[in-house]
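Hey team,

Sharing the Tat pathway signal sequence domain protein run so nobody has to redo it. Sequence (906 residues) first:
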Amino acid sequence: MAQISRRTMLVAAAGAAATIPLARAGAAAAAPPADPSATFTGHAPVPLRWLENGTPAELAAGTTWGVPWPRGAFPPDQRFALTGDGGTAVPVQTWPTAYWPDGSVKWTAHAISGAAPRAGGYQLAAGVPAAPATPVIVQTGGRIVVDTGVITVAFNRSGATVVDAIRRGDTVIARNGRLVASVQDKPGGDLPATLKTEAFNGTVDAVTVEQRGPVRAVVRVEGRHQQGRRRWLPFVVRFYLYAGSDAIRVVHTFVFDGNGQQDFINGLGVQFTVPMRGELYNRHVRLAGAGNGVLAEAVQGITGLRRDPGAAVRQAQYEGRLTPDVATWDTRVTTRLQYVPAFGDYSLRQLTANGFEIVKRTKPGHTWIRVDGGTRAAGLGYVGTPSGGLAFGMRNFWQLHPTELEIGGAATDNAQATIWMWSPRAGAMDLRFYHDGMGQDTYPEQLEGLEITYEDYEPGFGSPHGVARTTELMFWALAATPTAERFAQLAAATSTPPLLVSSPQHNHSAGVFGTWTPVDRSVPAKAALEDKLERLHRYHVGQVDQRNWYGFWDYGDIMHTYDTTRHVWRYDVGGYAWDNSELSTDLWLWYQYLRSGDATAFRFAEAMTRHTSEVDMYHVGKYAGLGTRHGVLHWADSAKQVRISNAGYKRFLYFLTADERLGDVLHSLVDADKTFLALDPIRKIRTGPYTPDPKALSVSTTTDWGSLALAWLTEWERGGDPIARTKLLNGASTIAALPNGWAQGNDPKYNLADGRYAPMTERSVAVGALGSVFGLIELMTELIALVDDPVVKQQWVTFCRLYNAPAADQIAATGTAWGNLNLGQAYARATAYAAAKLGDAELAKRAWKELRAGAAGYPETNTFTARRIEAPAVLNPVDEADVSVNASAQYGLAVFQCLALIGEHI
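Structure output:
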């Protein structure tokens, strides 16, 4: 493509500022300054497709996605146009989410409305975007009012009512939108004691408009749940509204900041009041079941009666249409309608992953009667009339059990529609530690416990205070009761929100996320590896369902290690249970998606990222910014470390979807180095006294620094706090200046103010197997490509060359042998990196040999072929294979990079 001058591009981009979101204080937002004399190469149109393929019938209000661009292609204020198949212009809103060091745009986010023309595929290109017929309008004042052209939503700036009203024209569809929670003082179930229960309402502290349209508006609401003087359970709730759409997407995050020994949540939900109009027999309830199943009922049923009102009447009620004039009915029905019960309360309860039940009752004070049941409900309900109503639902409804959709008071003037993210019908949320410590009161005793159960226990550290959960909700302000077909389509959009994606080939050509290549089966040796990678990935995906790894706090994570004797994963054995990102499982899964573009791979990685970025790390309290090592409970282990809260595991989903909640989490990790003042990661094995000094902190140059640096890299990309770039570059250059670079021993000291390591003159070596497998290898691949620092490059290449090298080579380069190091297969990718940078064919052969040998991983003979274990040897039939998640993650990452770096030497 011909080069385009910066001046030309800036002129073409005039007016683009209207599509750039308003920034919150402290959030990443500002583009780095570009060289005024720079020219931009431009880029050919990029094809986009739906992740799940095919054209979706409904969107979740709209959809937002990210697209990467090569360095130097476009300025950050470039505008983009979107066209569907056949050339139809589609209104699109664009904003930058990341930048290259030269100021050119690296990632852009794009949004379209569910009301826009839909196609099976699209083309994204530089140009002037089409304007929506009815752009989103945001009005600020005493309240914030968002008008999509179809509905208006009014947000209160304070108080216990978050959403004042949702209107469609002159009709109030819903009002008094609020957050509700309840807590009891004892767990219940195992104690005969009387329970004390308190109810809390979410109270608003701040409301921020993050985007104003024209296609998408975003309103951020912050607050806490309050009852009397107690204010706790902080929340951040974002509302997404799209031009011409009658839907509202909601992303709800709450943080548990209570006492796990005393606070037992027994209800957590979002509730709206829905005005009910018209006759009881013209009021409708819809609940989505499994698959496309829909329960369609009226509050006052007139079908199946002893006397028949008429076929036209019955069919109209069943289909959710206004029934014919009552004067046309059989009088034997109309004169006795007062004796037909009205069922005003409905409840769909998904208390386990594999079963839901629907019950209803006439009103409180009377029994529930069973309606029906099933396996896995889609998670959408509706209450309303032929003149309008509210559809309300939750994504991952059955996966995040115990959940509930509840309708109350539909036989009165005002129904209550509630999405229970934790159902009051389930047992209370019990976040207590799972054992009493077993006498592990001192570090020596705790280290002995680590030797037998692999659990790093320490009294008081297994606290849930500060963990969080994010849930995605959907609301539709409908003009009429939807048909069964439309309701099933809305349920499908709620369960799996359609997402547009660019191809692996385009993403790879953009040069993002370091070293990887799209799936390549061009020669038999590569095809064999690709088949093994796919088989290994498919096995772990399948284990989620076979082992029922679902639930409010668990969904998204997988288990760490297998027990071949019991034919179960070691769910109850110390540090062998939940994986909690150990050895970069998240990275493996995301590169699997990037290479393949496979929808299953994306959804698997997405669920893990949503989990690990909320449940496996702390967001408030003394451990804020740290994550928890793998264990029986996600917060059980006493090892609180930045290697688990690692921003590198979260940035994929952020850039691919522009998810604001993940943006918050990423930004919060910029100052994670301050946690080293509060908690010494190696306190149990440190010899001698240690007092944290901000100017001389003990922060390892590998595991710790790599995790911190990934947060700084992401913040720098996003144009956020400039300290991130400073610390990233200072850290890399001062580590490289150490006598042995990343292999240097004697505990180099870190300066919290600027990210520098203090100089050292004496050569020493301290290399651990875990040092580089929490994202450091992937970080350095990106960083060296971004900055021109030959010393950093030389020292890192040396480290990569030496890790698996003979002792003689290590002694020659660093003065001492590195010892008997583990994870030889994982570090094959380090050897491959050195081979590629040095152009060393013999080193490349060595890397392939290391990969195939499978040291501390998978030897070439492991084909990942599963064997079936049937009852009665197991509770449920399962497949088992010779795998562990540590080995799977590192094997996958090693193969990906060997193929990308030295594929020609396979």
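The chain has 21 helices and 38 strands.

Ping me if you want the raw files.
A.
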